[in-house]
Amino acid sequence: MVKLWVSALVMAVMAMGAQAQNAPNPNNDDNAHYGWADVLRADPVQGVSRTNVPQQQCYDQQVVQRDPGNSAAGTVLGAVIGGVLGHTVGKGDGRTAATVAGAVAGGAVGNRVSDHGGDYATTQTRCREVNAVSEQRRIIGYDVEYRYRGEVYMSRLDYDPGERLRVRVSVTPVD
What we know:
The chain is α+β, with helices and mostly antiparallel strands.
């Protein structure tokens, strides 16, 4: 039976401890309380954000190019034609020498003729990277006008508070 009384007494003490509350601290340094204010208006505040954006800028430019020609084909063709002409012109024992001389001379002429293909104009696209500045307008906050207990106040907030605004009221004595 004693055990039952001790258990009941322990339970009662614990229940009283759970019911206990902290009394307000009269030495509260904050001296603040919270309330609700009616929002009269919230005007968005706009700011400009600037960003460097790399862009590729391209343009067409006319350039003059030299045609290299086909000097190998011209040399071979000139040598063949020169060799045939030398062989035709040469007689007897000099025919071989005339064929070789014609081939050498024809190769030189063919090389020179085919090496000068000529100049021509063409259009090339040239590109370069430039930095362009991009400006964007965005909302950076809200100028809020609100009424708390008959007084009208203004504050800049980072967000749109809606119709009601929770306020912190702090009271400080004046000397």
